[in-house]
Structures are given as C-alpha cells and as structure tokens.
TrEMBL record:
It comes from Leptosia nina. One of its GO terms (biological process) is tricarboxylic acid cycle. The keyword Nucleus applies. It is found in: Mitochondrion; Nucleus. Belongs to the alpha-ketoglutarate dehydrogenase family. This is 2-oxoglutarate dehydrogenase complex component E1. It catalyses: N(6)-[(R)-lipoyl]-L-lysyl-[protein] + 2-oxoglutarate + H(+) = N(6)-[(R)-S(8)-succinyldihydrolipoyl]-L-lysyl-[protein] + CO2.
C-alpha cells in the first residue's frame, strides 16, 4: 500500500509548554525533511496515528483500486497507476479528466496547490507535486490526532505534577507523529475537513491558525475524551461546542457571578476552619470551584427544563454543597458541630453523611427547583445506584419518560470513582429501559489523592474516569484553576445531557490543600506534593487577581463580597448557639408529604380481599393475551396457564398465583408494583411467567398483570443487569421516593445477596435509624437446603436476623395491637413463609401498614411445585389476615395434653417434617408450629401455642446448620418467653463452615439425621 509519508529525520524532545507553531520552526531538525524513498512499501503499522478517516479513506481507495481501477475517481486511478509504476515524488498525480463537482469531504487536489512558496506549480494535465497530497493528509491526520489525543498534553493539573498519560513517553510527539512542516508551510491555506469546527464559518485556514486553534481547543486547560464515542453526530456535537475560538469566553456579569460563588465556597470553608479548627469536615480547600461548577450545571439544566435534581456525593465538600448549592439554612448546619442531643427518634449519623431536601427559587433562571442530596453511608460510591433509583422513581411518578424534568448529579472522589466496582454497575444501568435515568452528570472532585494514596498506586488506568468510557460518556477533564474553563465544561455537560440524555463526566483536576481531614498531616506521605501545594495560590486569589487586572471587578468589591458572606456565617453561628436540640427530620432527603398526616400510627388496613377480585386476577393471569389468535405462545406455557386456570376454578393458589394475586390486588388499589432482579420476568425457577413472549415476533410480549383493570396502577417487572449491589441499591432508591408502591428485588438465589451486602447493611437495615428515612422494600430470597450445593442453598437468614434490632431479652407487653406495634418499632421484618396465603398477606401487609419497613422474605424453590404447598381462597378472602404463627391443626391439636413434642419451625422444612411425621404415624404425638414471621418475634402467639401443649418437650427444627438459619435468633427469645420454666432444644444440622454440602449423598444423610432426631420422643 502506498502511503504518502513525510519523515522526520530525527526526533527531538519537546516541552509541553511550547506552542506547536513556535516549536516547529524553532526546531532546526524539523525543516530537514526527506520523502520516504520506500513510500510504496511503508506499512500501516509503521504509522500508528494514521488510523483516521483520511488515511483510511486513501487506504480503502487504494485497495479498491487494486481490485478494480474503475472503482475510484479517475484522478486517483491516475495517481495510483503512476505511483505504482515508480513515478518520482511529485509526479504521480495527474489532474482529473473531468470537472464534476466534488462531493462533501472530497479533497479537490488542485485547491491544495500553493500560489507560491517554492512548491511546483501545476498546469492542466501536468503532474502535481505529491507533497501537496501528503501535506493535506497530514493536516487532516493532525486535526484528528488533536481530537483524539489533545487531552494528553492539555494543562490540566494546577499543581503541574500529574502524569496522566503514562503510556506515551512524549504525547506531543505522538500527536504529530512524524509530520513536520517548514515555516513556509505555516502560511499555506488548508481546507478543513467536515469533522472540525475550528474554522467556524471558514472552510479553510492557514496551517498556523489551524494549529493554534487546535491547541486552544484541546491542549489548554480542558482535555476532552470523546473520540471513542461511536456516534458521528455526538462527536460533531462536542467538536462544535469545544473547537471554535473563544468558546470559553464569559461576559463580565458571568465572571462576577463565578467570583461571587467562589468567594462563598472558599468563605464557608474558612469560616468552619476558624470556628471548629480541629473538627472533621472533609473540607473542599483546593477544589473550591466545585460549588460554582455544580451551580452552573444546575443553572443550565434548569434553563433547559429540569425541575428536580437528585444528588449523591461523598464526604469531600459535602457541607459546602449543602450550604451553598442547596442553601440549607446555615444555622442548621452549624448546630451539627455543637454536639447537641436529638429531639426525635433514631441513632443519627455524622454530619457529612446527612441528606437534605429543599425546594427553592433558582435566582439565575427565576424558576423553582427541587434539590435533594441523598443521605449516604461512609461506603464510598454506595449511594450511586440509590440516587439513580430515586431519580428513576421521581421521573416515573411525574410521567417524565425522557428525563426532561428530573435528573441526577453524582459527585465522586478520584480514588473512589476508579476503585469501587459499584460505579461500573451503576454506569451499566444507565441505558437499560427499566433503569435509565436518561443521563447522569458525574462530577469528579479530583484532588489527585485518596486518603494517603497516590493515583499511581490506586488505579491502573490513565485517568480516574476511565470507567465512564464503557457507556460512551464524554469525559471533560478541566483544570480547577481556570474557573471559566470549568464553567464552560459544565454548560456543555448540562447541554449534552439535555440533548442526548446520556451520561457525561466532568473531571475537575484540583488538589487537596489540607490532609484527608482537618486533623491529618499530609506531609507524612506526600511531602513533595504538599510542598507544591503550599506554594500554590488559592483559586479565589488567582481568579480575583485576574478579574481585577481585567478591570471586571475592583479589589474593594472582592473584599466586600467576602466580608458580606462572613457576616452571614457569623449571624447563623450566633443563631445556632441558641439551639438546644438537633432534629434528624431536618435532614430527611425524601419527605412523603401527606403520607403520615392524619394516620393512626398503629392501625393497619385489612389484607384479605373479596373473592371476586381473586377470581378476576386469577383468570386474567391464567389467560393468554386477548389477541391470542395472533399471539403465538409457547406450548409449555399454555399448559402452565391451563393449570393455573384449574387452580382458580378449584379456589386454590400456588406460590406464583398467590404472588400474582397480591400484586394484582395492590395494583387494583392504585399501588404501583415494581419487581426487579435477575431473570424475574420468567422467574429463576420458571414458575412466574409474568411476561409472555410471542414465539414468532421479536419484542412482542404480553404482561397480564399490567392489564387487569383499566384504572389500575402501573406494573413494572424487569429483568435487571447481572448486578446485585447496583440493582438492589437502585431499588432502595426507588422505594424511598413514594410510600404508595410495592418495590421488590429478587435475588437469583438468596446467597447472591452477599454481593449487595453494603446496601443491605448500610441502607436497608439501618437507613431509618440513621436518616429517619423509611423504605418498604421487599427482598425475595430463594432459600432452602435442597442438595444444590453450598452456593444455591442459603440466603444467609442468620445474618438478617442478627441485624434485627429487637432486644432478645425483652418481651413487649401484650396488647391488642401487638403485631403492628412490634412492626412499628423494628428495623425490618424477616420472614420465611410456608404457604402461598402467607405470601399473599405479607406482601399486602407492606402497604397496609401506616408506615414502611423493609421486608426480608426467604422464598422457596421446590415448594413452588410442591403439591401440598397450596392455599385456598378462603385463606386470602375478606376478613383474613397474615398469620405470624401457623398453629398445629391436625390430630395433635385435638388432644394437646397427649402431645409429647412441639416442633417449631419456619419455611420449607415444614413439609419434610410433615411427611416424616405422617410416614411414622406420629401425628398425635408431635405438633408442628410454624413461624411465618421470625422477626419481630411473635412472642404473643407463641406463648399461647406453648401453653396449649403442657406435657410436650419443645424443639426448634431447622434445616440449616446450627450456626446458621434462625436458631441463634430464636433461642434467646424462646428463653425469654419460657422464663426458664421450660427449655427448647435444637433439632437440625450440626455447625458447619459452608452453608451446605456439595455431595447429594451427604445432604440426604444430614436430612435423614435431622428427621430421625425430630421423631425421637
Ligand atoms: C468503600 C470504602 N472504602 C474505604 C473507605 C475509607 N476512605 C474514606 S475516604 C477515602 C479516600 C477517598 O479518596 P477519594 O475518593 O479520592 O476522595 P477524597 O477524599 O480525596 O475527596 C477512603 C479510602 C470508605 N469510606 N469507603
Ligand atoms: Mg481524592
């Protein structure tokens, strides 16, 4: 393949600070050019940067020409023919035989001929100097190279210590590859390709100007990564906003606004430092520009129609964001430093984890805006999916299907953004139909350090933002010391989100002036960096000086703004001193207006429903789509639907039907239901089948539960990405947005909840206690020892029970509202139901409660098809309720005095016990009592069960190993209940390290032992 190539004889080391043009002509070797003698044979590999459209274009043409010379334009045909025939440099080209107009982006070679300047002139029919083609291609390639790699040499780091691009020794050299032009070339005019906007209205520019403009756009204080985006429209959109000269120029008013915001941002940190010098606050010093940046994103987004913004952020600068972005009353913030007791319930959280919700007028746009910062745990980035779920939910309830009114902003630290896997999981939700929030603006407060660790030890990627590349998000790196560049990038990011509804990243490259927190000594570990920081002026000073020099503000004005804010802080400080208590409620991020008002906090609505409703839902759920004639369903499914219909006719339900009836009846009552998780539409165990697929037409589906009643609430059932941490976090966020929804996450197998442990511990178990924020989320956790090996048997019931906050030594006094009172006081509900009716009621009870509590529900696998695991409509009809305890109802209950053993159990083991007792003819001797709800512990109902059987020994039967399952939770509570008058013993597997054996034989043996022991009287 012939490739025109100009080779630099020797390369030289070029300093980053040198301007391209001056560097070029300063370098004596640059003018020494030779034409590659072997140009016909030069390989593609030897020209790594020539992978742009121009070189590819010539290559493709050449290859086409090789197979069919008529397939290329006649001028290229002539050129390739001459060149391959060994024409000397500059004579291979002959002008085209006709003068047909050139297509867009096609280069008329004659236009490249310089009017003068030592280049050979061309007369019609004479060969053209090949250098003209070479140079033209070189210019195109250089433009493209700037677009791809300009960020490598952009001046992004205010400290000038970063080495963002470790892969390339001399990135500038890579941008130009081996191309060099001499001084005379600099004034030659080159046609600009359609993929650049540096010319604005100009179609051609002198080379010098081309290079200067590219330098300005790509190598100044903004570095853009976007050329990996596989949409030409989107790439052009970015080029259009970043390439024209002076795009970052601001008006004087805008400059003054930036300065004022910067002054507040810095003033806030200074004030805290002054008043509470040794208190941890994770100050923003070094990245104060974050506040004006966020405000700019919000201003532009509001202008573009956004009305509500949900934010998630880590510790760094959080108080500043609450004060200056959300305008949280300053005195409320300052009371957090005062060590006051709380007025309301809960255990609270440290000040830099608290959330807030505020509705206010945006003064710049004069529009009302709602801002929420989600409360978060210390676990960095864990809040990301929660914010997304909350955003999605708000969009859903507003009918904002394109994300035009509600959006999210996620803030990140550089180390956490690169290090935490949940960032990746959250990014991958960004474009999924049931999870997208239509674009998130990510802002990285990149202080180039994580606690005490340098980037070179904390990530393997060049930038901390590389994770965003997987979703084709453009990434804008920007030097925090150039506030106007930062604001420009913020505007572009907000516009990008509003235009394409896709994620975008702003990486504010800054530094951390103090230690990780205010009591840390950074010189222990980063001595050189901190020597540099000590010599670096704060950005406020840099920018104020610049604006004073430009005559935009006076020094007095700068001082005035600063003093005024200090006075505001001082007044708030004095006001805070008057406070005697703090209120956790002041920090709620998701208020449920109208939900609690006027409700009896201990009154539950009924959960039973009229039979007509059960029949209606049952029939719809068991029927093919109304257009069944055209909608071809899989034959196996037709059989399942038929079996369902038979159950409805017999007034019975299995697990799947009971679940559908719970959902359907709630939908009828106007409660939105959302079921999310891996493969939930069909169900891991192929039992659910909520979405029927047309066997012949792609994407043609039918969901009966979405079409039960004309005025029902919407039903969402969605297969998620293969993520637990991310997706469960998302659903938690969704669930806290509106109490009138049943939001469920199903684990594929219960043990996969391990991967979401952070969400379970930090948000679900403790969310209300820390942040007064309730959630009624339901976790469906397939659980059961069925010989499937260690990883598909246990949902780790014991862990959930261990985190239940009820005191094992305290039995609440009996009262008529015992159940609801216990539920009110608990942190969550843990249950292992054994009947479809229990499932039906417990799901409905989530909504019947006058408050919201998370429900952790162990769900069955083999019971889904167990002939005995059925319930009658009678157990779900009007007037029926959830039974926390299912008493013995067989022969043993008729002669309780004769009963010699009462086995308490929960979940599927009941059916094993039942069979064994029947097989051994012990139905009069052993009573089996089921705990359908394990926590809160149903003391009241168990008490009456125990007293029913005065002569019986008591055992707790479980299929899990002794150090797992419910035993360690129920044992001390039974002890409290029995008051040492009686003992309860353990019947079950021995202790183990692994949740279940991998050997079927060992499994069967263990089960046999368990059942043998159960039958010992
Ligand atoms: C998941 C998790 N791991 C570790 C920590 C402990 N930790 C708190 S801040 C921090 C450094 C964070 O660095 P970076 O993300 O760059 O934010 P910065 O503090 O620099 O703003 C670490 C390791 C944590 N809070 N969460
Ligand atoms: Mg950092």
């Amino acid at each position: 393949m012939h490739r025109a190539r100009v080779v630099l004889q020797a390369s030289s080391k070029i300093g980053n600070s040198e301007r391209f043009a001056s560097w070029l002509i300063k370098n004596p070797q640059a003018v020494a050019m030779t034409i590659n003698a072997n140009r016909l044979k030069s390989s593609t590999a030897a020209e790594p940067f020539l992978n742009g459209s121009s070189s590819a274009y010539v290559e493709t043409m050449y290859n086409n020409w090789l197979t069919d010379p008529n397939s290329v334009h006649a001028s290229w045909d002539a050129f390739f023919r001459n060149a391959t025939n060994g024409a000397q440099p500059g004579v291979a080209y002959t002008p085209p035989p006709n003068l047909a107009p050139y297509a867009k982006n096609e280069v008329p070679l004659t236009s490249l001929i310089p009017a003068s300047g030592g280049m050979p002139s061309i007369a019609s029919g004479s060969p053209i100097n090949e250098k003209i083609i070479d140079d033209h291609l070189a210019v195109q390639a250089i433009i493209r190279s700037y677009q791809i790699r300009g960020h490598h040499i952009a001046k992004l780091d205010p400290l000038e210590i970063a080495n963002f691009n470790t892969a390339e020794k001399n990135p500038r050299e890579v941008i130009y590859n081996s191309y060099r032009f001499d001084e005379a070339d600099m004034d030659r005019v080159f046609k600009l390709p359609s993929t650049t906007f540096i010319g604005e209205k100009e179609k051609a520019l002198p080379l010098r100007e081309i290079l200067n403009r590219l330098e300005q756009a790509y190598c100044n204080n903004i570095g853009i990564e976007f050329m990996f985006i596989n949409s030409l429209e989107q790439c052009n959109w970015i080029r259009q906003r970043m390439e024209p000269p002076n795009v970052t120029k601001m008006s004087n008013d805008q400059k003054r606004l930036i300065l004022a915001r910067l002054s507040r941002s810095a003033g806030f940190e200074n004030f805290l430092a002054k008043k509470w010098s040794s208190e941890k606050r994770f100050g923003l010093e070094g990245c104060e520009i974050l506040i004006p940046a966020m405000k700019q994103v919000i201003d532009t987004s509001t202008k573009l129609g956004v009305e509500s913004i949900i934010m998630g952020m880590p510790h760094r600068g959080r108080l500043n964001v609450l004060a200056n972005v959300c305008r949280k009353p300053l005195h409320q913030l300052f009371t957090q430093f005062a060590g006051l007791e709380a007025e309301d319930d809960g255990s609270g959280d440290v000040k830099y984890h608290l959330g807030t919700y505020i509705e206010r007028l945006n003064r710049v746009t004069n529009k009302n805006i709602r801002l929420a910062v989600c409360a978060n745990p210390s676990h960095l980035e864990a809040v990301d999916p929660v914010v997304q779920g909350k955003t999605r939910a708000e969009q859903f309830y507003r009918g904002d299907n394109e994300g035009k009114k509600v959006m999210s902003i996620l803030l990140h630290g550089d180390a956490a953004f690169a290090g935490q896997g949940v960032v990746f999981e959250t990014m991958h939700l960004s474009d999924l139909p049931a999870y997208t929030t239509h674009g998130t603006i990510h802002i990285v407060a990149n202080n180039q350090i994580g606690f005490t660790t340098d980037p070179r030890h904390s990530r393997s990627s060049a930038y901390c933002t590389d994770v965003a590349r997987v979703v084709n998000a453009p990434i804008f790196h920007v030097n925090s010391d150039n506030p106007e560049a930062v604001m420009h990038v913020c505007n572009v990011a907000a516009e990008w989100r509003a235009t394409f509804h896709k994620d975008v990243v702003i990486d504010i490259v800054s530094y951390r002036r103090n230690g990780h927190n205010e009591v840390d000594e950074p010189m222990f570990t980063q001595p050189l960096m901190y020597q540099k920081i000590r010599k670096t002026k704060p950005v406020l000073e840099i920018y104020a000086d610049r604006l004073i020099k430009e005559g935009v503000v006076t020094a007095e004005e700068v001082k005035d703004v600063k003093d005024k804010y200090e006075k505001i802080c001082e007044d708030a400080y004095n006001q805070a001193k008057q406070e005697t208590h703090i209120k956790y409620k002041d920090w709620l991020d998701s208020p449920w207006s109208g939900f609690f008002e006027g409700k009896d906090p201990l009154k539950m609505s009924p959960t039973g429903v009229v039979e007509e409703t059960l029949v209606h839902i049952g029939k719809r759920f068991s029927s093919p789509p109304p257009n069944a004639a055209e909608f071809e369903i899989h034959k196996g499914l037709l059989r399942i639907l038929k079996a369902r219909m038979e159950m409805v006719e017999k007034r019975t339900v299995d697990w799947a039907l009971a679940e559908a009836m719970a959902f359907g009846s709630l939908l009828k009552e106007g409660i939105h239901v959302r079921l999310s998780g891996e493969d939930v539409e069909r169900g891991t165990f192929s039992h659910r089948h909520h979405v029927l697929h047309h066997q012949k037409v792609d994407k043609a589906t039918y969901c009966a539960l979405a079409h039960l009643y004309p005025d029902q609430a919407p039903y969402t059932v969605c297969n998620s990405s293969l993520s637990e941490y991310g997706v469960l976090g998302f659903e938690v966020g969704y669930s806290v947005t509106n109490p009138n929804a049943l939001v469920l996450w199903e684990a594929q197998f219960g043990d996969f909840n391990n991967v979401a442990q952070c969400i379970i511990d930090q948000f679900i178990s403790s969310g209300q206690a820390k942040w007064v924020r309730q959630s009624g989320i339901v976790l469906l956790q397939p659980h059961g020892m069925e010989g499937m090996g260690p990883e598909h048997s246990s949902a780790r019931l014991e862990r959930f029970l261990q985190m239940s906050a009820d005191d094992p030594d305290y039995m609440p006094p009996e009262s008529p509202d015992y159940e609801v009172r216990q539920l009110h006081d608990c942190n969550w509900i843990v249950a292992n139901c054994s009947t479809p009716a229990s499932l039906f009621h417990i799901l409905r009870r989530q909504i019947a409660l006058p408050f919201r509590k998370p429900l952790i529900l162990m769900t069955p696998k083999s019971l889904l098809r167990h002939p005995e695991c059925k319930s009658s409509f009678d157990e779900m009809a009007e007037g029926t309720t959830f039974k926390r305890v299912l008493p013995e109802e067989g022969p043993a209950s008729e002669n309780p005095d004769k009963v010699r053993k009462v086995a308490f159990c929960s979940g599927r083991v009941y059916y094993d016990l039942l069979k064994e007792r029947r097989d051994r003819g012990l139905e009069k001797d052993i009573a089996i009592v089921r705990l359908e709800q394990i926590s809160p512990f149903p003391y009241d109902q168990l008490k009456s069960e125990i007293s029913k059987y005065p002569n019986a020994q008591l055992v707790w039967s479980q299929e899990e190993h002794k150090n797992m399952g419910s035993w360690s939770y129920v044992e001390p509570r039974f002890r409290t209940l029995l008051r040492n008058q009686k003992q309860i013993s353990y019947n079950g597997r021995a202790t183990a390290a692994s949740p279940a054996t991998g050997s079927k034989a060992a499994h069967n043996k263990e089960l046999k032992n368990l059942l043998d022991e159960f039958c010992v009287l």
